[in-house]
Model the fold of this input.
Amino acid sequence: MSNAAAPVTVGSFYEHASPLMQLSLLSGAEYMNRVIPEEAINRPGLALADFFQYFAEKRIQVFGLAEMSYLKSLEGAEREKRLENLFRQPIPCIILTRNRNMIPEMKRMSEKYKIPILRSPLITNRFINLATVTMEHLVAPQIKFVGTMMDVMGIGVLIEGPPGIGKSEAALGLIERGFSLVADDLTVIHRDSHSRLICASSELTRYHMEIRGLGIIHVPSIFGMASVSLEKRLDMIVSLYPVDPTKEGDRSGLDKKFRKILDIDVSLVELPVAPGRDMAGVIEVAAMNQKLSYLGHDAAKEFDQNLIRTLQKRRAVRLSTI
Done:
């Protein structure tokens, strides 16, 4: 595992938000490296009336219909003064909603104070909701994990193990069974606002797999678009390791194991790999077992309780015959 945290810049926000919010850059292309320190979104409101006591200058500033109408109601000199007082603040950027055009004073202030101005056709409330979700995603704690992520019957399974153990081959077997690939070899994991671990692939390797002896394949071209998923919640980790005949692992399943990732405990299943063993089938059963556990059914615990009851009954019978 490796940390992948980085400060969120106006450029990174623009890159992630553009497809969803149809952002366009109006001014300040050379200043897109400005950092956005806070994830919340702000409407300047009273700041346009020169009241800055509680102004949230570390956030993206959104100008909607009310802000633009107010500015246009001011006289030219007064409007320029109010905007200059705003642009003097260390704000990351300004975004105009409803496809509003910049007024000339904004263009001058953008160049003078090196603050980018962007635009979106969305209505203001809709834009703020989507921008908040995007910022939460960008600032969420995040790591990169060496492993292959699969969606198996709605259960997010991360397959890990030493190089050459057969992670991709097991994933390929699961894809052939109708399940979907999220990421191969390198999985990006972030914790969302609901304390869930969400897994996705890096942009470079998305939809691709490396199969030893075969090379790189494009999964949806071979198996169809249903064979891939953009992201999936992490429910369990399957750790593959070479079988050791001299050691016997847990055969009952009573010894539950967990792996802590971003301060969240994730169910861990350790599976020995041996020649001829159908690892895809075993991982599929492990996922089904995990799904049953969410419904309150624990096969190992149930078997153990049945065994204890049987032994107690036999002991009671023996005692009654003495």
